[in-house]
Amino acid sequence: MAKRITIDPITRIEGHLRVDVEVDNNAVSNAWASCTMWRGIEKILRGRDPRDAWLFTQRFCGVCTTVHAMASVRAVEDALKLEVPPNAQYIRNLILIAHALHDHIVHFYQLSALDWVDVLQIPKADPAAASKLAESLSPWTRNSRNELKAAQDKVKAVASSGQLGVFANGYWGHPAMKLSPEVNLLAFSHYLQALEYQRKALQVVGILGAKTPHIQTLTVGGVTNAIDLDSQAALGMDRLEMIRTLLADVIQFVQQVYFVDVCAVAAMYPDWFKIGGGVHNYLAVPDLPLDSKGSAYDLPGGYIMNGNIAGTRPFKTAADKEFRDSVSEDVTHAYYHGGKPLHPWKGETEPEFTGWNGEQKYSWVKAPRFNSQPMQVGPLAQVLVGYALGHALTRKYADLAMGKVGAIAGIQVTPDMLHSTLGRHAARAIRAAMLAELAQKHWQLLVDNIAKGDFAVHNQPVFTEHEVEGVGTHEAPRGTLSHWVVVNNGKIKNYQAVVPSTWNASPRDSAGASGPYEASLMRTPIADAEKPLEVLRTIHSFDPCMACACHTFDPEGKRIAEVKVL
Amino acid sequence: MKRVLIAGIGNVLLGDDGVGPCVVRQLDSTYSFDESVELEDLGTPALDFIDHIAGLDALIVVDSVDNGKTPGTITLYRKQDLLKTASSVRMDTHSPAIAESLLAADVFFGMPPREVLLIGISAESYAAGCNLSESVRAAIDSAVQHVLAELARLNISCKKKQDCPSNVWWSAVPHPQPA
User: Fold this and answer.
1) pTM of the model as a whole
2) In this complex, is the C-beta atom of A60 within 8 Å of any C-beta atom belonging to chain B?
3) Dihedral sign computed on CA atoms, order A429, A434, A436, A439
């Protein structure tokens, strides 16, 4: 008998992700992803000074602050055709890399690991065996028997005091859990360690951005960090050394722990390389510019249609003409007034709430489309595009990951298998390993450029009476982010943010085509409809972000997965 | 020396959700505190909240609250009240995570804030916009007094400064309402 599962985790006012799936014969037969709150924040920006826009946009989301700040200044710079001095590019790149490393670590250990790791198994583990296993996988020095034993003791203490609720999304003891007690223990021990390293990454953002979570050092045309090698107050050798040391620790954790854990967990769940693919159109923009014009980048961008890797098309710049011309938003199934899909520069945000109706309107998320097609964005898109284009760094870490998973699982892992739930996790780890290497590179680029005697960090923006349009993109931790601005007479006339999670969480469009979340859930096996762990595995693999708009504390907060027999 | 964080939580672009940051900025502009006290407008930190609270002696959170009371009503919540709201399912890393962060800091990292107070201000509207509704704005002074009372209870001193305008930059400039 068919069942309807609604995962609607928070009551009332918060804007958050809701997922409805129909389950028939123990597999998903239909799916809807929706967002439950209207934001319309973009309207706040109309009429304001474009130089201030980033201060507001970094408040869109409390965790992706830097991400929206960066896309905003880039949008205004694009509209004004304003170049950014090399020092400012490198400083921005370091902030973006540090934020992304923080974000990827948090995503895996705080959100996703418990989809695969069963804490109830941990007390049964043999710490000595776990330590031996760990040493065979990684040179990481914190995998000793004692360290693992201490982690195990923590779980035992938590279990005996009845506080297992701390594992917020745990479906412990679920039949879809497959790891050995030792691997469960190892992953949990790294979850504890991850907190230290994610915090170090944030400290780098804090040093370069003057403050976290809301950075203060951006400006349209560059950054405001004063560079003076001999000063302790400015960005000098003291602070640069501090950054280098912090990054070195984070890099080691990413490459020796996070990357290895993802490979090891993936190797234990090989079936999940066949589940959760969905939309095989991928979109990524180039990022980490290497010069003031933005003519060369360290992260590749482009797009893939229908999984045709051989036909991958590159984007030459972060504001590529084809990208500019091809994005539109469809509101057929979203709670907005409107008819035809609109380009973001012409975008409207007029609410028309009708209540949830899967056949008609059912989400506050618009449906962004590229050449009228739904696109999957995120680390997987970037890795597949880079791999297809022969990007050396992508190939290096993707081949390393596929080799490692294959060796542990005793199977052959090919790039085609990355169109899957596990592919998204693997790609995020691959991207993190790439970013770790690039962190060192961009630190060195900054130091070398300063050593040449270049202290410039800022070009002055000049506004005219003419109307100008700009797009600022950033390949954010969750994928392609674009801010679209229309400036008239020095004031913002229109502003639209097309964020990664709207690409991925998009509802159906006028042609009935589902977005990536919805498509990826189709045919997912469900062992127990009361505990839809498999749905969460796939949704979590995208790293959703839409709940961050509003943070009211709800003392009655209840989160539920509701199951109805149809 | 005791380490204390006074954190304003909420999205300043969504109406009354911005009251936490407003209260903290008002405190910052009207009082000077002992060096051990930090004031932060944390916005909407979700799970990153853990990074800010681990190892504190005391945490004072000012936040809007959805408890069905008259807008502007202040309700105080202690640690045990907050822990009751921990969830069973989490969809993302960005949903509010006050309870989860407290639990994680407590259970796993062994460095929970020892004293926790959440000063909750019942909200009227979360519509997009940079201004508070009248009822909630009127509660700011009272929320400030609750923070000061908690500091006094913790034996932490502070001094009234010469009044200077609070740096609530997001609502500082009158802004034409969109049509």
Assistant:
1) 0.94
2) yes
3) negative
